[in-house]
């Protein structure tokens, strides 16, 4: 029976669990694969301390670069986190024709072309299921199961930290307390900036869109807004008056030819209460895929955590094992022309604060009217502070560019506060 030799870089949350499962499920994995999976080396800054009960036959290193040059290794599993060390390791492996499994979203989103080119030239294979939505098998679904369909759009709740915070806020908890609770439960990092400002979700949208189109959508091309401006007053108004729930959505739409046009954005969005994404609560993730023939497909589960991420990593190891056993040459990566960005019309929510003076409301509505934006609803929920009276407006579908211009003009009006909240309304 053939043996596939693995080296694992990073023995933190995901790496330790991956190694534990590799060892405890060794026999069933071997039966399913028809080959032995052997852990030959691990790498971690504290590898000596984190022996995890490994036998002495498993070599340990503290420099990840050593794994790319180890003789006899068939694949490297990169679970280091960060950007530079993983980038050097993964590129080093792929260029030498060594296959790689990684869970590193940032690495993929920021170095997509470089990695795919290295894999194609070097002959290594690259698997990365755990990088988007953790334990949810969304990437293989898009890449393999839907290969014969046309994916029209992907809508995702892709960040468990912000979904947990928004869930608590919808129950009336202040954002700062919701964040503290998430940190206490280990659901948010000490520095949660990349979660709160939407950049983590934008990285995931970049990976999803690049996989669907075959062309790299850079994360900085994804129009991104975080949840920092959302208050519990928005959540309450959304539920009681609009019948909607606030979710941080990452969206990629492929409106015409999927190969060349992409609309991509991340932002707090108002989802109708009866929509399947509205019921995704706490730290859960979900992805709704709209496909031309299959219709709407909903994927739901845990987007992070040792178990879900290690499950996806081991799924990749098994897929890679089958490919290596088949002896088939790796398929060349699809690479299309750089995607052209586009926008589609959308209804918006705008909450403003204004001084309680005559004429403010008419100046706001006149600004929208001048740009041809039609108002769907307008509310003044009432506030006791005459220096900051809330005005909440929803619009009929309009172009995001025109709406952005209107918001800039409105914020420049006298007596209107700079603090505001903008959200899209999901149809
Ligand atoms: N945690 C999740 O739920 C989850 C889910 C999906 C994907 N991911 C991705 O999986 C990857 C690993 O995440 P994690 O949560 O397991 O991270 P983690 O707990 O921080 O573990 C990373 C491990 O790699 C080691 N390491 C980092 N840089 C190193 C270097 N230059 N040389 C040697 N060792 C190094 C770290 O050592 P030190 O402890 O000494 O720093 C640590 O043991 C990340 O890319 C993450 O985005 C994580």
CATH T-level topology of the largest domain: Dihydrodipicolinate Reductase, domain 2
Tell me the major beta sheet. Answer: 11 strands, mixed
Helix content: 25-40%
Mean pLDDT: 94
User: How many whole angstroms does the radius of gyration measure?
Assistant: 24 Å
Total domain units: 3
Report the end-to-end length measured between terminal Cα atoms. 54 Å
Summed up, the helix count is: 14
Q: So, the CATH homologous superfamily of the largest domain?
A: Dihydrodipicolinate Reductase, domain 2
Q: What's the count of strands?
A: 17
CATH class of the largest domain: Alpha Beta
Strand content: 25-35%
The bound ligands are: NADP nicotinamide-adenine-dinucleotide phosphate
The general outline is: elongated
Description of the structure:
The structure is a single chain. This protein has 427 residues and is α/β, with parallel strands linked by helices. It folds into three domains: 3-134 and 307-326, 3-Layer(aba) Sandwich (Rossmann fold), CATH 3.40.50.720; 138-302, 2-Layer Sandwich (Dihydrodipicolinate Reductase, domain 2), CATH 3.30.360.10; 347-425, Alpha-Beta Plaits. It is built from 14 helices and 17 strands. Strand 9 and strand 10 (261-272) form a beta hairpin.
What topology emerges from the helices and strands here?
Blueprint: E1 3-9, H1 13-24, H2 26-33, E2 36-43, E3 59-61, H3 65-68, E4 75-78, H4 84-95, E5 99-102, H5 105-122, E6 126-127, H6 138-145, E7 151-157, H7 160-170, H8 175-184, H9 193-196, H10 199-213, E8 223-224, H11 232-242, E9 244-253, E10 261-272, E11 284-291, E12 295-302, H12 306-326, E13 340-341, E14 347-354, H13 360-370, E15 375-379, E16 389-395, H14 400-411, E17 416-425
Helix pairs in contact: 1-12, 4-5, 5-10, 7-8, 13-14
The structure holds NADP nicotinamide-adenine-dinucleotide phosphate.
The site of NADP nicotinamide-adenine-dinucleotide phosphate has 25 residues, from helix 1.
